[in-house]
Write a structure and sequence with these properties.
five-stranded mixed beta sheet, Ubiquitin-like (UB roll), 1 helix, 38% strand, mainly beta, binds FE2/S2 (inorganic) cluster, three-stranded antiparallel beta sheet, 99 residues
């Protein structure tokens, strides 16, 4: 599956393996989205605007999805957010280095 990261007018489309979160997939492409908790879903430092597409949020205690984007604000913690299908677009902050 694929997702697109946008920053400062640039876009980069990356592949996402089953079970990967947005932040994990980004990290494999040398794009850092993690916040201070390092991906434990606590700090919200990795929260980004989900411009389109549907993501599901993982419960870190169970490892199971517990919420889909439809039920949450358009910002999602990327360390616990998994794309449900192709077409997810994530707006990253202006300073994010995509390539
Ligand atoms: S890195 Fe802290 S909530 Fe995602």
């Amino acid at each position: 599956m694929f997702l697109t990261l946008r920053s400062a007018g640039q876009e980069k489309t990356i592949d996402v393996q089953d079970g990967q979160t947005i932040a994990e997939a980004a990290r494999l492409h040398d794009i850092q989205l993690y916040g201070s908790c390092g991906g434990h879903g606590i700090c919200a430092g990795c929260s980004r605007y989900i411009a389109s597409g549907i993501v599901q949020l993982l419960n870190r205690k169970t490892g199971l999805p517990y919420q889909q984007r439809d039920d949450v604000a358009p910002y999602a913690k990327t360390c616990i957010a998994q794309p449900v299908a192709d077409g997810v677009v994530v707006e990253t902050e202006r300073s994010a280095r995509l390539w």
